[in-house]
Amino acid sequence: MIRRLLVADRGEIARRVFATCRLVGIETVAVYSDADSDAPHVGEADYAVRLDGGTPRSSYLRGDLIITAAQRSGANAIHPGNGELAEDPDFASAVADAGMIWVGAPAKTLGILRSKTETKALVAEARVPVLPSYTDPAQVPGFPVLIKPDTGNGGTGLRVVRDATTLAEAIASTRREVGSEVYCEPYVEDVRHIEVPILADEHGAVVPFGERECSIQRRYQKIVEETPSPAVDPGLREELCRAAIVAVRALGYVGAGAVEFLLDARGDFWFMELTPTLQADHAVTECVSGYDLVRLQLLVSEGGSLPMPGPPPIRGHAIEVRVCAEDPAYAWLPATGTLHRFAVPDVASRFRPLPAPGLRLDAGVEDGSVIAAHQDSTLAKLVAWAPTRQEAARMLASALTRSQIHGVATNRDLLVRALRHHAFRTGDVDTGFLDRRPEVFAPLLSAVDAVRLSCLASALAGAAARRAEAAVLAAVPSGWRNVPSGSQTAVYDGPAGPVEVGYRMNRHGELAGWWVRTVDPEELDLAGLGQAPVVADYPETVVVRAGDEQVVLDVNGIRLTFNVHRVGEVSYVDSPEGSVALRELSRFPLPAPDAVEGSLIAPLPGAVRRVLVVPGQRVRAGELLLTLEAMKLEHPVHAPSAGVVASLPVHPGTEVDTGELLAVLAPE
């Protein structure tokens, strides 16, 4: 029996497992690196053990350190979380050899799953449909094809090739990028990603839990999941579940996992892989089934039998979104920094199956959490469970819109637009959903007046804060200037570039008029604020209340409340019109240093993973020079033009920050 459990992971998944352990009376042990010493998962465990090393690969992914931590803390079981250790057969064997209970798939099965081609071959022998695999380019019968690494996950190295002329080069590039063998399979257009979550015990029982739709993805990674799938009827659901059971038994699988399929518009499906972890989207399955999957996972690992005779019925509809620290407008680059505020309204449950329709939040962060380049970009998973799909989507979009997420860029606004998109509401989704709908990437605050009103609210809140400070210090009265009738002005760096805002107050402290104009960055003269002509005036706006944290405006007879959270020079403005971050620009900015011509700088903080060139080497435009690892993803750095590598100051393992020099390319 499990008495004390160590979770060999961090963040949200560790907190999720701890929640169930508290419920069933199991003591818990957290592990942490120096960067996570104050993380929420550390404070929620009964015991916590520090791991040496500053990066995941030198701490959380060191199996020897994890086992030592378990022995020191008196744990008799290890849960690997849902990262790389959960799929590592060597780590699973080491845990068993140390005399501890392994809460995961058997090491033998993990060894098979390590090779995707071997896994597909075994499943095909059991007569589950699979797409053919080709390891020899000469065997490829037609195009397009998808190049995939034989090991690993997370979408790294996937490439679509549409003609034979580029196939050999694409295969060679993928091999260099992933450092392993690759194979090709037919690329199915307009396909859905469907998975069947399963639990299997050592007594031969295999129970599927319906299906999950995971088609809305970026970089081959899921960001919206739901159950049931709008494309799956009862007959198809039965076929998918039957195929999942056959695949699980063919692979000798025991534990919690998910069998993943591709589904086309005709209803044909093919086995893709078996993911041997408690998946990140397990919360939607818990909501519609009513079962605690972590509890069942622990039960199976203790040798127990699954308590249900077959698939549980599906109750209502659940949709989950992954709120990630990344910027969709800039190629999904990860975002780092301090999360100054993280507040989601109307949450009914955290880390536990919902007792009734409502919102569930599984988060690994809180106010003040530091988002570093070494951790996963996922901040939280927000789930809505309702009687119908339309109700769940509406509830989830509304909660996201009203959430306050300040300090780092996130995909929150994109998720809102996706949930409210007509195609999503009608169930017309596939893995190309985002690629074919550029409107989903448009700024949420597209209405000019919404941006302008947020700028005005920020300026008024800033003035209120200065008035309060002046009153305390018995110094000068309100505003930026001493003339009450003069225009008060400031410039913010907004979502569409610099914006100048100004307003005039009368002698009674009432808003007499205000204006906003977009400023050309090349013509920006911060020292000459207030000298530009007024390009728009809005006398119909009335200030109902203006405090340093909240501003209420009456616009054409409609009241709007703007909550303003100021952190240094940045104002985070939340309103019914959406959220916007406005950075107030300094009146006298320091000049930026000149960069060496041909410099390639780091677009994000991270660690150099691979370097594929050497100084003096000639490179082609678009050639892969090196890769950066940040938030468990590899980000390629390509040559912007042909040239010669004149300087290469980094090597594998080098830690870089945003803006640091990676290489210098000289023209040939």
Automatic annotation (TrEMBL):
Gene3D superfamilies: 2.40.50.100, ATP-grasp fold, B domain (3.30.470.20). PROSITE patterns: ATP_GRASP (PS50975), BC (PS50979), BIOTIN (PS00188), BIOTINYL_LIPOYL (PS50968). Residues 115-302 form the ATP-grasp domain. CDD domains: biotinyl_domain. Its cofactor is biotin. Residues 587-666 form the Lipoyl-binding domain. One of its GO terms (molecular function) is ligase activity. Residues 1-439 form the Biotin carboxylation domain. InterPro entries: ATP-grasp, BC-like_N, Biotin_BS, Biotin_carboxylase_complex, Biotin_carboxylation_dom, Biotin_COase_C, Biotin_lipoyl, CPAse_ATP-bd. Keywords: ATP-binding, Biotin, Ligase, Nucleotide-binding. The keyword tRNA-binding does not apply. SMART domains: Biotin_carb_C. This is Propionyl-CoA carboxylase alpha chain. It comes from Paractinoplanes atraurantiacus.
